[in-house]
Amino acid sequence: MSGIDITLRALHHGERDLEGDLLAAAERHRTEHEFHHVATDVARWSREHTTRLAALGRDRGLDLSGPRERPASGALAALREKASEALGRRPQTGLLLLHDLRDLHLAAAGNSLHWEMLAQAAQATRDQDLLGLVSDCHPQTLRQMRWTNTMIKVLSPQLLVSV
């Protein structure tokens, strides 16, 4: 297995995990409507990335599993929603949101580094399929990072001072 294949596998897992983390955080902070909706929207990018990485992996003889299944609905989702409503907008909830944003930012940054490594390898090997995938997906990962960073900048002053 080549270094490119190893990096594709690591990125596939990273994007799949980021999607799951974004969706879980969106549910956890359902009462923060802006966060909830944007996190759900940008999670779709990671889902698309995992699908496209798996397709490229198949072309290269790699068995990358498909995208993560949707989070469990039903009782577990209802429990998360009730917990989110019960916690509401308490100061501790704000700190949890900042913690989640930090973790999401770091996960997106890790994925961005993998995209960058693959871009460099694609250019060096003149792999147009890989370069096309990186060119399509990496900008969305960078936008995920900018969004989490902006949210941290906006929320930190009020949440850290009010605790």
Can you walk me through this structure?
It is a single chain. The chain has 163 residues and is mainly α. The chain has a single domain (3-162), classed as Ferritin, core subunit, four-helix bundle (Ferritin). It is built from 5 helices and no strands. α1 (3-28) packs antiparallel against α2 (33-59) and α2 packs antiparallel against α5. The longest helix has 35 residues, at 91-125. The mean pLDDT is 88.
* Strand content bin: under 5%
DSSP helix fraction: over 70%
**What's the Cα radius of gyration?**
17 Å
Strand runs, count: 0
What's the mean pLDDT score? 88
The second-level CATH architecture is Up-down Bundle
Number of helices: 5
CATH superfamily: Ferritin, core subunit, four-helix bundle
**What form results from the Cα inertia axes?**
elongated
Low-confidence stretches: none
SSE ordering: HHHHH
